Amino acid sequence: MCGDLFLKFLKLYQKFRVLTERLTTPKVNGDWSVSLRSALKKRERNYKDFLGWIQKYQIKIYSSFEFSNLVSDKNKISSLVTQIDGIKQPESATLQNIDSQVPLYLEKYSMVFIKPQYGSKSERIIVLKKNPNGINFYYYPTKFNSPGLRVHNTCSTIPEVLNMVKQYAINETFLIQQGIEVPRYKNSPVECRVLMVSDGLKWHPFHIIYLGFPDTHVSNQPHTDHNSVDTIKVLTSLYGAKEAEKILKSLLSLSAAITERLDKMYPGAVHEMAYDFILDQERNIYFLEVNTKQAMIAPTANLVSPIFNILAEEKDSYDKYLIPHGTILGQFLEQRITEARNEYLKNYSPNIEPKSSIFSL
């Protein structure tokens, strides 16, 4: 009789242990938020432990390959976003016939962009701009911030333009696109970025203005120190306070609509999306592209190492963007781990050795 009672007590104790077991994450030493493809390239021991751990317990914290491939293709994401009411985009097409498409676009628009379909950081972009004496040809190479490597030529005829395009639009698929004359702040082209970040339960918006290099035509360029500027500050300088608030409200509304669409297509699979917009001279907003895992600020080396040695001019960005952004990403990871933990405890009895942890759940 005592033996039967002991066995019943033992079973109840084991069941209690299952319900109260703690799943502790391994130490994370790497960027878990970037993408699974990039993450698998990491070689750090701690990060490999973390990857193995999330795969074992099926904790989904990375964007899917399908989604990453969608947003990396400017043509595909453009077709998708076009279906959302109220969103304008520059006219664009895959560049398949330089001899016919380039003259057609130059006939319709005073400025034309030719850019890689899968490009990033505004590298390898050709800009064609009409002037009273012909057409200016600009080529912005991979090392964009090296002015000596840029190409500028004035073409007096269309055949000259075509020859220049054929010389530089090579070795990959390009898009041809309507060029938009954007406003300038301190002689730098202005681009608006809205970052939507999920904490696992709801989306949070951040916004910033990126300034391109002065005296160029491309707004979104490889980000250098201090080229990120407060949105309201720039818009107010350009248009006044009332119009600035109106434009920002529209930017956030459009970003929410895009996020809702993509989140429905990939439910729970995406935690961070950044949208790039530009304004034309009439203040119309144009959508440019979607970015995944895109930080708001390009911190200086002084901000990163040593991490707490912050310059006075950096503190506002640190407080307004880096800390809130990182906090939401951490909340997302914690939410995913909590969901996986609860699901796992329904079906299994985990037997995990305690490890050092950034979360204790």
Low-confidence residue ranges: 13-21, 222-226, 298-305, 352-361
Number of helices: 11
| Strands in their spatial order, largest beta sheet | 1-6-2-3-4-5
Number of spatially distinct domains = 2
**Shape annotation:** globular
Structural class, by secondary structure, is: alpha+beta
CATH class of the largest domain: Alpha Beta
Helix content: 40-55%
Question: On the 0-100 scale, what is the average pLDDT?
Answer: 78
In words, what does this structure look like?
Helix 6 (98-108) crosses helix 7 (158-168) and helix 8 crosses helix 9. The chain is built from 11 helices and 12 strands. Helix content is 40%, strand content 20%. A 6-stranded antiparallel beta sheet has the order 1-6-2-3-4-5, covered by helices on one side. Strands 7, 8, 9, 10, 11 and 12 form a 6-stranded antiparallel beta sheet that branches. The protein is α+β, with helices and mostly antiparallel strands and 361 residues long. It has helices at residues 2-20, 36-39, 45-56, 65-72, 74-82, 98-108, 158-168, 231-239, 241-265, 301-304, 315-347; strands at residues 92-94, 111-116, 125-131, 134-140, 151-155, 174-178, 184-185, 188-198, 203-211, 228-229, 272-279, 285-292. The chain is globular, with a radius of gyration of 25 Å. It starts with a helix and ends in a 14-residue tail after the last helix. It folds into 2 domains: 65-88 and 182-330, ATP-grasp fold, B domain (D-amino Acid Aminotransferase, Chain A, domain 1), CATH 3.30.470; 92-178. Mean pLDDT is 78; it is low at 13-21, 222-226, 298-305 and 352-361.
